[in-house]
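Fill in residues.
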């Protein structure tokens, strides 16, 4: 009886503490978010290193199976892990180099064209707005206060971007900091790969020591679900970006749209952002085409919409598979929340995180419903 009372009291105390923590977070939400962002900034190289190790490990396992797996030679056995890690890094490095050699010239050409065309686009938009300004006094007032041509607008926009970057010194410092973070993350990932069996053993030992069997089962289920969501999402999204970039380029060439080799790779790159990425690239492509031929620009938007429908209904389920299993509304929510909290990394990885949570909640709901039916 006393044991039951003690358990009840402990449960009440835990509930009160949990409610207090939740209320504290709600009442100080902005402060909590700032603390989380600061912590994230500090541990980001370690998190990035873990992510790099996760991706590299897929190749490391493959190379270890190829690199004389049945050999009894001590030199080969002792060097297998190091050679596999080196080959994995070289494989990704060669792929990225090949990708950048193709993409960077196209992106540079795209930026040059956009800068060249922007004054004409700006002046065309202002001229179109002036036609309807008489009907909208507020618009007329804004246009009168604008008083600048396209070239001046471009120069002003460049100055604003420069001020956002914090000046040249700040920009150089930011780039240097990112490079150092990446180098630190790369070394950390190599350390993880070299000692992954030992880390796994220590993790399991720690879990077995401090967690009950039922909680260990739940934890391993969470990790397994997260692994499935992230692996299928990362590999699938990369394949998806390449496919849509190639299809867009080929389609633009076939239908005679201008700047096909420039816009296609850019749309492929922006397609890494789920759901809305390709449309972002399409909007930029529209700005380039509209100065040459407004009719072709409208047809280009129609082409992109059709391509996205084909991609979303036929290609995406086959390439990414249904293992991500996240409805469209939650994909949009994941992008919005992830981007608001963690910026670009939140946009890219918000979907697999939400997918993991969605699957776990679905599993819990199904188990509870099954238990009620059986009970």
């Amino acid at each position: 009886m006393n044991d039951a009372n003690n358990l009840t009291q402990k449960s009440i105390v835990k509930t009160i503490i949990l409610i207090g923590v939740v209320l504290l977070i709600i009442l100080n939400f902005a402060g909590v978010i700032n603390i989380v962002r600061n912590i994230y900034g500090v541990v980001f190289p370690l998190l990035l290193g873990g992510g790099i190790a996760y991706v590299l490990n897929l190749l490391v396992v493959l190379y270890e199976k190829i690199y004389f797996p049945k050999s009894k030679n001590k030199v080969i056995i002792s060097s297998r892990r190091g050679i596999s890690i080196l080959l994995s890094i070289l494989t990704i490095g060669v792929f990225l180099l090949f990708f950048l050699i193709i993409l960077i010239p196209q992106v540079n050409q795209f930026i040059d064209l956009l800068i060249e065309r922007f004054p004409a686009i700006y002046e065309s938009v202002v001229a179109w707005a002036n036609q309807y300004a008489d009907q909208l006094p507020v618009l007329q007032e804004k246009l009168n206060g604008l008083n600048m041509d396209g070239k001046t607008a471009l120069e002003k926009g460049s100055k604003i971007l420069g001020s956002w970057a914090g000046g040249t010194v700040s920009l150089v410092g930011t780039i240097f900091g990112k490079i150092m973070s990446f180098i630190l993350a790369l070394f950390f990932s190599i350390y993880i790969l070299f000692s992954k069996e030992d880390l796994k053993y220590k993790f399991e030992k720690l879990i077995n020591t401090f967690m009950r069997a039922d909680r260990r089962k739940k934890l391993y289920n969470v990790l397994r679900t997260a692994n499935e969501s992230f692996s299928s999402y990362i590999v699938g999204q990369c394949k998806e970006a390449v496919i849509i970039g190639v299809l867009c380029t080929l389609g633009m060439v076939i239908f005679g749209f201008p700047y096909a080799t420039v816009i296609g790779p850019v749309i492929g790159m922006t397609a890494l952002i789920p759901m809305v990425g390709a449309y972002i690239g399409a909007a930029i492509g529209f700005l380039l085409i509209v100065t040459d031929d407004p009719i072709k620009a409208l047809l280009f938007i129609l082409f992109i919409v059709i391509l996205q429908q084909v991609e979303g209904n036929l290609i995406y389920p086959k390439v990414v598979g249904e293992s991500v299993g996240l409805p469209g509304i939650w994909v949009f929510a994941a992008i919005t929340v992830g981007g608001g909290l963690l910026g670009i990394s939140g946009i890219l990885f918000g979907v697999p995180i939400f997918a993991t949570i969605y699957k776990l909640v679905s599993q819990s709901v199904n188990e509870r419903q099954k238990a009620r039916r059986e009970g």
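Residues 74-132 form the longest helix (59 residues).
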